[in-house]
Amino acid sequence: GGRGAGAGGSRLHELAGSGDAQGLRAWLAEHPGADLEERVGHTGLSALHEAAFSGSAEAVEVLLGAGASPSAQNNMGWGALHWAVLHYAVNHEPLDPEQALGPVQALLAGQAPLDLASVHGETALDMALGMADEGLRVAQLLTRAWDRHICHVLLCLDRFSQERSPTAGLGQPLPWPVACRVIEHLKPRMRAAGCG
Predict the structure, then answer these.
(1) According to the 3-state scheme, what is the secondary structure of 84-152?
(2) Which residues pair with 167 in a beta bridge?
């Protein structure tokens, strides 16, 4: 179980906020086509935000599997990853560290965007880095995910630059030489992160 990140709301939010994966499965089966992006509370939380803060990786996985958006932000600009990091910050001591990291890992596996920033410009990684020593494990997890993401983008860009002609659209030249210089510059980091 866990605690909801917001007050009030529907049965969907109650189940998500308590981390009740089994209850969520049953509710979703009874309510096909339900609005998974419904917002509650004064901060505008989605059910996935609630599940991420509940600490239940399984509840997060159930909602992602049902189509909940991993990129939804609340009124403060927080995405589900922010709430998962906050859960870790609050609960990493009493819980097994791997259990506390569960929602973060589930969201990363579900393609939650790493670059979502709050209204104050803070990403989930920024939050983790602001936690000092206790945030190190979650910061490492997010940093590895960032490295994989950067590698994927750069390798796709590299492939695209080799496959396309130097012009596109209305004959405007594409800055492939610039892109290739960026790729060359970042290749040591890419190798260190295990991508080529």
Answers:
(1) HHHHHHHHCCCCCHHHHHHHHHHHHHCCCCCCCCCCCCCCHHHHHHCCHHHHHHHHHHHHHHHHHHHHH
(2) 173
Q: What is the Cα–Cα distance from 9 to 18, expressed in whole angstroms?
A: 13
Give the C-alpha separation, 82 to 122, whole Å: 9
Sequence letter at residue 13:
H
The span from the CA of 45 to the CA of 38, in Å, is 8
Which one, of 71, 103, 91, lies nearest residue 134 by Cα?
A: 91
Mean pLDDT of 125-129: 84
Supply the DSSP symbol for 3.
-
pLDDT range class, residue 168, cuts 50, 70, 90: very low
**Contact present, 60 and 103 (Cβ < 8 Å):** yes
Residues 6+ apart with CB under 8 A from 71: 79, 112, 113, 116
Percentage of the chain lying above the pLDDT 70 cut? 66
| Predicted local distance difference test score (pLDDT) of residue 173 | 43
8 A C-beta contact, residue 92 and residue 134: yes
